[in-house]
Amino acid sequence: MGVESTTHVADEAAPPSPGRAKGQASLLKGRRRLTQRLLALPVIWLIIFFVVPVALVALYSVGLLNSFERNPGYTWQAWGDFFTGGIYMRLFWRSLRVAIIVSVVVVVLAYPIAYFLSMVAAKYKYALLILMITPFLTNFFLRIMAWKVILADQGLVNNFLFLTGLRAEGNPLDIAFGPIPVMIVLTYVWIPFVMLPIFASLISVDRDLLEAANDLGASRWRAFWQVTFPLSLPGIGAAFFFVFIPTIGEFVVPLFMGGPKGYMFGSAINDLFGISLNWRTGSVLSLWLVMVVFAFAYVFMKFVKLDRLADV
Amino acid sequence: MTDHGQNLDRRRFLKLTSRGVLAAGAVPLLGSILAACGDDTAATTTTRAATTTTAGATATTAAAPTTTTAAPTTSTTTFEEMRQAALEAETGDLEVHAFAGTEAPEIWDYGYGDAYGTPVFTPIAGSFASLAKLQADPGGIDIWQACFAVFATAVDEGIVQPWDTSLIPNYVDLNPQLVDATQRNGEQFAIPLLYGLALVTYRTDLTVPAPNSYGALFDEAYAGKVSWPDAWGAEAYIVAGKLAENNVVDPLNPTDEEIERLHSYLIEKIRVIPRTLYADIPTNQTDLASGSIWVTYAAPTQWIELQKQGVDVSVVGAPIEGLIGFSCGYFLLADSDQYYHAHEWVNQAVSKGAAEATTNTRNFGNSNLTATDVDPLLANVFGLGDPSVLDGVTLLDKIGPSDVLNERWAEVKASA
After folding, report:
1. Is residue A32 situated within a structural domain?
2. Which among B53, B66, B312, B411 has most CB atoms closer than 10 A?
3. At A252, which CATH number?
4. Confidence of residue B86 (pLDDT cuts 50, 70, 90)
C-alpha cells in the first residue's frame, strides 16, 4: 500500500513528457468512449422499458390516449379528482403506512440473520445463505395459501391458542384477513430477498477495522454500532427499497389475505385497469406511485450513499 | 335464405377474397357465386328467427337443396367447396382465450381436433380483466370466452365482430332467451354457452334463521361473517338495488340519483359487513367450509361442491327479490384471422356433448336445449331443456350503466 502510494505520488510529481501526455489523453478518450458504449445498452433498455411506458401512462392520465373512456379528450380532471377527492389519497396514506412498517420490520429481522451469516457462520455462510433463500424456489401463491392455513380461524395459530387455553374455542384470534396478515405474509416473503444486500454490505466490511476498534478498547457492541453498522448502511438502504417499492404497489397478497380492510393502493390500480376499465384514474394512481418512489429514493440517497454499495 | 348458397353474399365474398381464397384459384367459382347472389346483401343470417329457418334447413340442404337462385343444384356444393377452401386458406393456429378448464377435450372436441388440430388455449383471469387485455392488445386471439356483463362494452369498443350463425348448425338448439340477450341490431355478437344463478349461499348450521333474501349479504346480524366477490363491480349495485330498502325502480338501469344512494349504501356496508372479498372460488369454498364465513354470494357450483364434501350449506333458491342470473359464452375477436375455424370450433363447443360436459364438470346450466343428459340434481337445479327457465330472472347481461357502476365499485373498495 505504502509503496504504491509513493510511486503514485512520484508519478504525479514528475512533469509528463509530451508523448506520454498525448498517450494518456488518448487512453482517457478511449476509456470515455468505452464507458459511453457500455452505458448505451442500459440507457436504451431504460428508455424502452421505463421512460416510454411511463410516458404512455402519462398520456392516458390526461386523456391524450384513451381506452374505454366515456368522456375522451384532453383533461386534467382525473388528477384533480385524485388530489381533491380524498378516496384514493386516503388509501395511499394507508398503503404508505403498511409499506413503511413492512420495510422496517423486514430490515430489522433480516439484519441479524445477515449478520450471523456474514460474521459468524464462517465457511458455512454460503450454504446457509442458499438454505435461507430456498423458499424462493416455491410458488408465490403456494406460500400465500400456506399462510392462510396458519392464520385461519381453525388454523395453526388459533389451534395452538385453543390448546394452551390462551383463547376460548369458538372465539379465535381474528388474524385471517386484514392488514395484519398482509403485513405478516409480506414480511415472510421479503426477508430472504432483503437479506442479500445486507449480507453483501456486511461481508465487505474490512475486518481490520474491527480489529483496530478492538485494539483501541472498543467493546464488541460499540464496535458494531460505530464501525459495522455505519458501513452496512448502504446495504440497509438498498434492502429497505427492495421491500418498500414492491410493497407499496402490492396487490396479490391483499387480494387473498386483505379482506376489505387490507385493500391497498396497488389493489386499486389493479382494479381501475382491470374491473373498472378506468385507465385514466388508474394511470394517475400509477404515476403518483412512481413519483413517490422517486421522492423516497432521492431522500434516501441524500442521507445514505447507496452508490457505496457498488463497492461491495 | 334457406340454403347455404344464398348465404354467400357480397360481404362474405369480400371476406373470402381477403383471406387468400383468390390466390388459391377460386376466382371463377366466386364470380359465379357472386352473380348468383345478386344484391342479396341481407342474406347473411342475422336474427334468431331468420337463422332458425336457415339452420333448421341445414341438415336437409345438402341432400335436397331447394332454392330459387340461378344455379340451385351447384350453389350448395359450391358453398361447401368454398367453405373448405376458406378453411384451407386460413393458416396458423386457432387461439381460444377462455376460462381455465375449457381446454378439456370434452368441452369442445367433437371432431374438431382430428380435423384441424388442437387450438391454442390461454386462460382468462376474469371477464373484465380479459376485456382490458384485449382492448390493449388482442394478440392472435380468435375466440374469447367471457360472461356477458362485458357484452355492451366489448361490442361498443369494436373488440368483437358478429358470428355468422349459418356456419353454426348447433345454433338452432340454443336457448332463445340467451340468444336474444347477445344480439345487437339483429347481429349475433356472442354465442351463449352457459348460465348460472347468483345465489346467497349459507351455512345452515351457523346461519339461523335461514335467510330468504339477498339482504343477507348486507345484514348486520352476519357482520364479519360474509364474503363478497372481489370483482363484484356493477353487479354489487344491482344486488343492492333489488333490495326493497333501497327503493330502486329498475335495478338494471338505476338513475344517477339512485346510483349515488346505492354507492353510499355499499360504502357504509363494506366497512362493517364483509370479512373477505374473495378472488377465487376454491379459497371461498374453504372459508365457507371452515366457518370463517357463513354467508356468501356465489354461483351454484360452490353450493354443489360443498354439498358433495358434506358441508352443511344451502342456498336461497327463491329470494323475495327474485333471482339474479348471468350467462357466458364465446365472442369472435374483430381481428381474428381464423374466421372459419372459429365457427367450426364454436359449433362443437356448444354442441349437445360439450354442453352436457359443461354442466356435469363445471356445475353450470348450459344453453343447448337438447343437452339434458346430465346429473339429475344439476338438471333439476338448472331446469335444463326448458326454454323459459330464465323467466323472471334478472340477467346481469342487461346492466345499463355497467361502465359507470364498475368505476364506482373501485371507489367502494377503496373506501373500506
Report:
1. no
2. B411
3. 1.10.3720.10
4. confident
